[in-house]
């Protein structure tokens, strides 16, 4: 698969990167036994996605678990250790630094230049929701069980769930209920509320296959068009309609000059699939 064969070099100790098809990266969470996150894990995940953003041949990413029975059990509570400090103010500063770094790592999925499709299965608790909410497209296996679990361990979710999920689902009442109670909810309820867009019957293999098919389709499109679409969708989420329209004028006044448009027209005349150049040198 040419240059995409080298995506494995982006792997880390807890994250495995491969390329199942041209221009598609598959990132798998792989920390036994339950993909519980500690600081080295979340730091590595952020670094992997920042590195993926710098790969000009990638056009779509699938995030999944390498573990057959579950996606992620959440935070590794045993690893949450802070220095003993009598001064509460200094301890607060330490916590602020840790939380900010944690948020930055998980937000790497959102700031990735390429669409990120997450494929969940089995248990998807706590931090799983933070991760899912930072992705662009969300699929789940029918056997998945979700929970905004943080309230059960004495804290408010602070890595993105409460910031992103209300905007994703458009159901403030249900998000509040789930965050206040920490109760489990099924794949069917996740789809109904809009947290996921597709429920795939089965488990890990089936949902990952579905996500990879979508990624493969995206990878056939103009990388300039897809990159711009993700960028403008994120801008629209956080700005008014008029602000987004004005911003789109500025963005597309540059991006419409791409050779990809000419290639698309020529391919239509040839009745063949267009062939797009990669995004060029490392970004």
UniProtKB/TrEMBL annotation:
Any Pfam family hit: ECH_1
Assigned GO CC terms: mitochondrion
Keyword annotations: Fatty acid metabolism, Isomerase, Lipid metabolism
Biological-process GO terms, alphabetical: fatty acid beta-oxidation
Pathway(s) the chain acts in: Lipid metabolism; fatty acid beta-oxidation
A molecular function (GO) term: delta(3,5)-delta(2,4)-dienoyl-CoA isomerase activity
InterPro entries: ClpP/crotonase-like_dom_sf, Ech1-like, Enoyl-CoA_hydra/iso, Enoyl-CoA_hydra_C
UniProt entry tagged with the keyword Isomerase: yes
Family matches, as CDD domains: crotonase-like
Family: Belongs to the enoyl-CoA hydratase/isomerase family.
Protein name, as recorded: ClpP/crotonase
Phylogenetic placement of the source organism: Eukaryota, Fungi, Dikarya, Basidiomycota, Agaricomycotina
């Amino acid at each position: 698969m040419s240059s995409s064969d080298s995506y494995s070099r982006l792997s880390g100790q807890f994250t495995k990167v491969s390329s199942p098809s041209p221009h598609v990266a598959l990132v798998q969470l792989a920390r036994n036994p339950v993909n519980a996150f500690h600081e080295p894990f979340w730091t590595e995940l952020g670094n992997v996605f920042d590195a993926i953003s710098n790969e000009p041949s990638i056009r779509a990413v699938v995030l999944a678990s390498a573990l057959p029975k579950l996606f992620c059990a959440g935070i590794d509570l045993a690893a949450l250790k802070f220095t003993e400090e009598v001064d509460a103010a200094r301890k607060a500063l330490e916590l602020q630094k840790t939380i900010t770094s944690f948020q930055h790592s998980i937000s790497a999925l959102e700031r990735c230049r390429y669409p990120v499709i997450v494929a969940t299965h089995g248990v998807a608790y706590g931090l799983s929701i933070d991760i899912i909410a930072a992705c662009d497209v969300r699929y789940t296996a029918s056997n998945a069980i979700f929970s905004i679990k943080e309230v059960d361990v004495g804290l408010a979710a602070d890595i993105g769930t409460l910031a992103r999920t209300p905007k994703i689902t458009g159901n403030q009442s249900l998000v509040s209920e789930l965050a206040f109670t920490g109760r489990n909810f099924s794949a069917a309820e996740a789809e109904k509320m809009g947290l996921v867009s597709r429920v795939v019957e089965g488990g890990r293999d089936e949902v990952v296959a579905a996500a990879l098919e979508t990624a493969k389709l995206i990878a056939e499109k103009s990388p300039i068009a897809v990159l711009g679409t993700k960028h403008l969708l994120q801008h629209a989420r956080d700005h008014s309609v008029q602000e987004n329209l004005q911003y789109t004028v500025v963005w597309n006044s540059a991006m419409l000059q791409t050779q990809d448009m000419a290639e698309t027209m020529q391919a239509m005349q040839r009745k063949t699939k267009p062939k797009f150049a990669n995004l060029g040198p490392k970004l």
